[in-house]
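Good morning C.,

I know you're traveling, so I'll keep this short. The sequence:
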Amino acid sequence: QVQLVESGGDWVQPGGSLRLSCAGSGLSASDDIMTWHRQAPEKAREWIATLWPGGATIYDPSVKGRFTVSRDEAKNTVYLQLDKLTPEDTGVYYCQDRDTSTWGQGTQVTVSS
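The tokens, ready to paste straight into the viewer:
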């Protein structure tokens, strides 16, 4: 069964940090192109980051310098480190294996004081 499972979402105050995880099964999160997306309340889902198998990354300008994507090949897991969070970062965060078009179920991030 091809599956991605996100975790790590939580409530955090502005300026805080979170690390989201995306664990893969039935696919290779290490060999595939992995992407992260988010969906704010009442808004469309938007792309925020891509991680290529060789380690290259690209970020949307809204998160560049604050978010970092990485992977642990041994755990077949991709991570999204979120730093300097603002209320505008609130939303459901999704990972995707672009090679297999597999999406995770999403994890909620809420940034508020």
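Safe travels,
E.
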